[in-house]
Amino acid sequence: MKTNTKWSIILILVIVACSVVTGIVYNSLSDKIVENTPKYDNKDTLDIASLIPDADSLKPLDIQGGDEAVKEVNEAYAGDELKGYLIKTDSKGAYSTLSIATAITIDGKISGITILSQKERKDWEMV
User: Fold this and answer.
1) CA separation for the pair 1, 18 (Å, rounded)
2) Residue (of 46, 39, 43) closest to 119 by Cα position
3) Which of 4, 19, 42, 95 counts the highest number of beta carbons within 10 A?
4) DSSP-based three-state secondary structure for 108
5) Under DSSP, is residue 111 helix (H, G, I), strand (E, B) or coil?
6) Which tens digit of pLDDT belongs to each residue from 20-46?
């Protein structure tokens, strides 16, 4: 009985020591952690021209029915000339929802894809 109590106390002390060290390290690095945390949500800063060359404005299309993953469809214009379409979709990732914008030119080619937002955990990736 004395041996079990002794090892239990040692184990508890080791756990407490590890917790204290972890807390100290986290507190000393918290500014760097915030600084290096990636910012994935760029919904408000979508660069249309990088997805569809020459396009400078979007005009939303009214979509009804169809696939529920499609959240928004826009026509992309350069002035009054139709340059293509920008489709915003949501897709289920491993741990969260991925919001993706796909640009398609008027000749049917994909001209760009960008991730608008995602909350996937990089530290859980398989290597």
Assistant:
1) 26
2) 39
3) 42
4) coil
5) strand
6) 999 999 889 888 877 776 554 444 456
Task: Fill in the amino acid letter for 16.
Answer: V
Distance CA 57, CA 82 (A): 10
User: For strand 70-78 and strand 81-92, is the pairing parallel, antiparallel, or unpaired?
Assistant: antiparallel
Eight-state DSSP code of residue 67? -
What are the tokens at 25?
């390290």
Tell me the pLDDT tens digit for each residue of 102-121: 999 999 999 999 888 777 76
Asked if pLDDT for residue 16 goes beyond 90, the answer is yes
- Give the whole-angstrom CA distance, residue 103 versus residue 48: 9
CA distances to 54, 59, 60 from 88, rounded to whole Å, are 19, 13, 11
Q: Residue 92, SS3? A: strand
- Residues facing residue 49 across a β-bridge: none
